[in-house]
What does this fold into?
Amino acid sequence: MAMLEVKDIHTYYGNIHALKGISLTVEENEIVTLIGGNGAGKTTTLRTISGLIHPRSGEVFFEGEKITETPAHELVYKGITMVPEGRGIFARLTVFENLDMGAYSQPDRSNFNDDLERVFQLFPRLKERRSQVAGTLSGGEQQMLATARALMARPRLMLMDEPSMGLAPILVESVFETIVEINKSGTTILLVEQNAMVALSVADRGYVLQTGEIVLRDTAENLRQNEMVQKAYLGIE
Amino acid sequence: MRDQLKASARSGLIFGVVIIFLMLFGLTKTLSDILGELFNLQSITRTGNSGGLMLLFALLAWWAGSRAAKEDKENWKAVLRNGAVSGLVIGSITALFTFLVGSLDGADIEMRTYLAQLDRPSVQFLLYGRSIIAGALMTFFIFLIFNLVGALASYILETRHAGGYLQKKYLQIKDRISGTSIVVRYKEHPQSKWIGYGILLAGTLLMPQFLGKYWNYAMGTVGIYVIMGLGLNIVVGLAGLLDLGYVAFFAIGAYTVGLLTAPAPIPIQWSFWPVLVISILLAAFAGILLGIPVLRMRGDYLAIVTLGFGEIIRVLIRSDMMSPYLGGPQGVRDIGGPSLFGISLSNERAYLYLIILGILLAILLTNFLQKSRVGRAWMAMREDETVAQAMGINTLYYKLMAFATGAAFAGFGGVLFAARNQYTGPADHTLMVSINVLSLLIVGGMGSIPGVMIGAFVLKGLPEVLRELDIYRLLVFGALLVIMMIIRPEGIWPAPRRRMELHESGLEEIPPDESLIGEEG
Ligand SMILES: Nc1ncnc2c1ncn2[C@@H]1O[C@H](COP(=O)(O)OP(=O)(O)O)[C@@H](O)[C@H]1O
Ligand SMILES: [Mg+2]
It folds into this structure.
C-alpha cells in the first residue's frame, strides 16, 4: 500500500478548473517529485493534499486512511507537514520561536529539546541565529528555517513546495543535499519543483504536470533522459 | 489593463455598496454632522448637515480614488483611468440609490416602516435638500470628481515621504531620553518593574478615596473603556481580527442587565450579581453565534460584516417593533445596581472600585491566555493563517475563542456602564463606541496592556481634563491620531516586539527593548 495515494482529483478556484484529474502515489521512504512550469497546478496539488482546499471530486489517502475532507490543521497530527511555497516563515518571530511553533502539534514537550538538537545538527546556521528575528535571515537561511520548522512536527511525509525558489545555485545544491539527508533518516518526501534539473537529480520517481494534468510519470532517471522533459524543463535541445 | 480596470470597478463596487449601507442605517447623518460641526459647514437641511454630507462623500471618494490608483502608481494615465472607473461605479450606484429612495419617497411610499432611518427628512437630507434629479446628479459628480482627485493626489504624493522627517526627529528625542541615567539604571534591573507595578496598583486602589464624585465617575468611564479595550485588544491585537461592530456586545451586556433588573419593560427584577454573570455569558455566546458564520471570511469582509452587526443591534433596540421588549427609543430606566451584605454599592466610588477589580481580572485573564498555547496559536494565526493551519492550529476555533473572550469583556463593560447610569438607551450604543475603542488601541499600542490603559486615558480621560475645548477635541484627536500613525505606527506603548515568553533559554538572547519602528517605518 502506498503511503500517499491521490486518486483522480479535480480542484477548482471558483470556475477555474485548476486540477483536471491528478493521480499519483508516494511510497514510504521515497522522494517523489512533481515538476511543471509556472501555473501548472503544483501548488494547488499540494494544497489539495494538505487539506487547505478540498477537491470537487477525487480522493486522497494517507496510509490507507481517506483524508480528502480532513481539515488542514488535523493532518499534521496524522504525520503530514508542509513546507509552503515562499517558505511562509513567521517573519517577526525569532528563529527559535518559529521552531517552537513548528512543534505546536507535539503534546509531549519532552521531545522538544532532542528535536531541536536534531534540526540544529542539520542546519548549524540556524543554531547560530536562534535568537535572530526570522525576517532578517537571508533567503537560504529562511528556507532552512521553513524546513527545520516542518521537521519539528516529526512528519512521516513532508510536502515541499519549490524549496529552490529564489535561491542562488550554490544554495540550491546545499538545500537539496539536506533534503536527501532528511529522507535518509526516514522522512518520505513529495517535492514540487520548477527546477526540474535538481529535483530529478535527488528524486526516485517523478511526475510531469502541465496545465492541471499529469502528462508523464516515470523514474527520475528515465525522465532525465526523456526528450520532451529535456526540451521543456531541462533546457537541453 | 483590463485587469486593472476590473479591479478598480470592483473596488468601486465595494465602496458603493458600503456607502449605500451607511445611508441605509443613518450613519451618513452622524458622520456628516460631525464633519459639518468640525468645519463649520452650512446646511440647507435640518435633519443632518448637508454640507457635511458633501464633504463626507468627497472624502470617501478621495479614499476610493487613492485605492484605485494603487493598481498602477507609475503611470498617470493609468492612475486617472482607474480613478475614473472607480468614480463612475461608485457615483452611478450611489446616485441611483438616492434617486430610487427619492422617487419612492415622492410616490408617498413609507419606507420608514421597513427602515427606521429612511423617513422623509432623511431622504431630503440625502438629496442635500434639492430635487431628486439635482441631488442624485450632485452625488454622482462628487464621487466622480473626487475619485479623480484622490487618484491624482496619491500619484503626486507617491514619491514623497511626509512622515520621514517627523519620524527622524522623534527617534532623536527617544534616543536622548533612553540615554538618561535613570532609564539606563532601570533597564539594568528589570526586577524593578515589579516595584513599579506595585506602586501603580497601590496608587490605583487609593485614587478613588481622593477623588470627588465627578472625577470618580470620569475615571470610571475611562476604566470601562480600559476593560473594553482589553477585550478588543484580544480580538484585534492578539488574534488579528478586525471587528468594527464591537459595540454590539457592549449593547448586549447593557440591555441584559437592564432588562433583567429594571421593572420595565420586562417585569423581571433579579439582583445584580447573577445578572452580571448572565450578561457576560450572553455576550460571549453572541460572539460565538456571530463568529461561526463570519470568521471564515477574511480581512475586509469581516470588518464590513461586524460593522453591519453592530448597526443591526442598534437599529433593533431603537425600533418600534421591539419596543415592548427592549424599551424602544426611550431605553430602559431604573436599572438595578450591585449591593454587598445589604449595603448598596450604587455610588461613583464603589463603581470605580468594581471597575478596577474588573480591569485586574481582565489583565490577569489576558496575560494567562497570551502566555498559554492559545496565545501561541493567536500569534501564529496573526502572522500567517495558512502556515498556522499547517502547524496544526485549528484557526477557526482560536478565532472563535478570541471573539467570544472579546465579546465577554465588552458585555462586562456594558453591564457596568448601564448599571452605573441606571439607564441605557439606543444613544449609548452607536458606532462611536466601536470607533472609540479601536482608536484607543491604535493610540495606545495594539497588543499591549499598558498601551490599552494609556490609550483609554488619552481618549476618554483627557477630554474631561480639557473639557472646555469641547468642539475642538474631535479635531485634536484627529490630529493626534494622524501624528501618531506617522511617528509611532505601533502606538504609545507597543507590545514588546510581539513575542512571547516560551522558554527561558529562548528569551535570554532577545534584546529586551526593541521597538517595531525599524521594521515598519
Ligand atoms: N487563489 C487562486 N484563485 C484563482 N486561481 C488560482 C489561485 N491559485 C492558483 N490559481 C490558478 O490555478 C492554476 C494553478 O496554479 P498553481 O497551483 O499555483 O500553479 P504552480 O504552483 O504550478 O505555479 C493557475 O492557473 C493559477 O492561475
Ligand atoms: Mg506554485
Observations:
- Strands of chain A lie at 4-13, 16-26, 31-36, 57-62, 65-66, 80-83, 157-161, 188-193, 205-210, 213-219.
- The CA atoms of residues 9 and 189 of chain A lie 20 Å apart.
- The longest strand of chain A covers residues 16-26.
- Residues 90-154 of chain A form one domain.
